[in-house]
Write a structure and sequence with these properties.
Distance between the termini: 110 Å
Mean pLDDT: 81
Number of helices: 10
Largest sheet: 6 strands, antiparallel
Structural class: alpha+beta
Strand content: 15-25%
Order of helices and strands: HHHHHEHHHHEEEEEHEE
Low-confidence stretches: 51-69
Length: about 375
Amino acid sequence: MGNNDNGTPGVSDEEWARFTEQAAQGAGDAPREPSARARMVTARLRAAQGQEPPGWRTGPAPRERRRPTRLKAAAAVVAIAALALIAVRPELVIDRITGRTEAREDAAKAAPLPAESVRPTAAPPSLPPDRPTLQEPFRGSPALQWADGAAGIELPAATPVAGMSAETVADALQKARQFLVASNLDPATLRGERPASAIALLDPRQPDLLKDVEQYLKAPTAQDTPVLLFTRFDPNRVKPVGDVVKVRGSMRAEQGEPGELLVVADYTFVHPVTPATGGPDVQRIIVRRQTTFALLDPARWETTRGRLQLRAYHSEWSNVECEAADGFLHPQFTADLAAGGQPTGPAVDPYDRSREIKDEKACGTVTRS
């Protein structure tokens, strides 16, 4: 046995031979070289994972140790953000719980209603109560599925009536439509200007009619007011929300007296408005008008050819002050409701088109807006 370079005793020839024999047999304290199969498996794992597999020469991958910590941190951020959103807009959770969110989604997906050919026999289905907004002025209203503006005034097919040709009947229907558009949808009329195009369709030979209309416009009172025929708002107090008015109704032609063609119209108009000073307060003004026009045969009646006479007109307005005397409809916004008087009339669903308009003098209550 010799000595090492540092002076310590070396390994004898007998000990070295025994060590070599144990290594060849895989015994003793000699390090073991991995077999060819082990090396092949290791190589495959490296190729598949792009990293060293845990094994005889590697430890756990550092990325696996860090990942759970990052996921927990991300979940915490999402939870904090959700709690902050709920704190700022709690209605999101409330609406989801009460079903209002689902109702809004269903209404948004619903197809427009087909044209109304005859008066319905029941009110529209009830919806979860919802307030209009500047972005969604018809939210929560049956009018959401109604037609927009003049498209909601569809004319029936014209056939001969009262001894008048189909062409004459078609002309009478068209003029009645023009009057309704000019008196309820024309932007100039809505902002309180003189409804000249509507008045031009009326027969000046109808006794006292045009005289009364001019008096209503010049010196209105609570009883003699132009809103009996025309939808008008004070532009200093009210402005429209968007440019869409929802419309639904029907029209028909029928026989009147000999030589008299009657056009009977029944339409509801829904106007979303807000204060002229601005703000988020939105109110829907619901105006329903039942109007009967007459087109007379000049051979039998004193009339102006091609002009309409008015046989009857009935109107009602919802969500407005009851006793306004200045010739305008005055919406009742949220701030106005607390200061207003208590209604004394019956409760009415303004969207129920199955009922007749009653000439009630008392101020009633609407069941939905």
